[in-house]
Structures are given as C-alpha cells and as structure tokens.
Specification:
CATH topology: Glutaredoxin
CATH class: Alpha Beta
Radius of gyration: 20 Å
Number of helices: 5
CATH superfamily: Glutaredoxin
CATH architecture: 3-Layer(aba) Sandwich
Distance between the termini: 55 Å
Number of domains: 1
Low-confidence stretches: 17-31
Number of strands: 4
Mean pLDDT: 84
Order of helices and strands: HEHEHEEHH
C-alpha cells in the first residue's frame, strides 16, 4: 500500500512539473512572435460561395480596415485556381480557411468566422482584433 501511495505521488509530481515547464515555453514563444515578420490575413474559398462565405470575407476586410487601416494585408484566394492552390500548400491549409499568419504562427479563425459572420459580425470583428493585437 505504501508503494502505491509513493507511485501516485511521483506521478503527480511529474505531471505538475511537465505542465509548469510547458507554460514557461509559451511565454518565450510569445516574446519572439514580434520578430517573425509581418502579419497577414488570408481567406481561402471555393468558386461557388454561399452567403456565409461572402460574409466572412466582407466582415474580415471591414474589421481590418477599421482597426488597422492598411497596415495588415488581406488576400482572398480561390482554392480552385492555381495561385490559390499554391498559396494554400505554402501555408498548409486544405479547404476553406480564414487564417492570420505571422512567420510560423498561424491562427485559424475559420470556425469562428462561419459561426459569427452572419449572426454576430461584431463578435467576429472583435475576435479578429484580439488575435492580431498581440502579434503586432
């Protein structure tokens, strides 16, 4: 029984040590994000687009213009065209995607974009600003 308690204690101590070590690594990574190059926003879509697809693009453009002027470039790519396919491969996306990129940092906002673009565009706009601000 004493051995079981000792094993549980050791496993608990190791788990806590690993979780604390992982957190300190995140802080280092956040500090080096500013050295990774410019922030860019990309929207990948197909040729046939629904109202939500168009709304994601429109809200993203409007949010970037309102909060960042022309400081953050926005580019929309059609995945069914050569240029769109090549850029998608370069960034590592496979389908319709709204992504913020800074160097190796990629923030995928696709789910939020489709969730909020038509029903709560203010929330999507706020989320875009919140995700980009720390990258600047």
């Amino acid at each position: 029984m004493k051995h079981l308690h000792l094993i549980i204690f050791v496993l608990l101590a190791l788990t806590m040590n690993i979780s604390c070590t992982g957190q300190s690594g995140e802080k280092k990574n956040a500090a080096t994000i500013s050295d990774q190059g410019p922030v860019e926003v990309f929207y990948f879509h197909n040729t046939r687009r629904c109202a939500t697809c168009n709304a994601v693009e429109d809200i993203t453009k409007a949010a970037l213009a309102e909060h960042f002027g022309n400081k953050i470039p926005f580019t929309s790519f059609n995945l069914e065209e050569t240029e769109g396919k090549e850029k998608a491969e370069e960034i590592g996306v496979a389908g319709q995607t709204l992504v913020i990129v800074k160097g190796e940092t990629k923030i995928n906002l696709t789910n939020e974009g489709f969730m909020y673009a038509r029903n709560n565009p203010e929330k999507l706009e706020t989320l875009i600003k919140e995700k980009i601000d720390p990258l600047l």
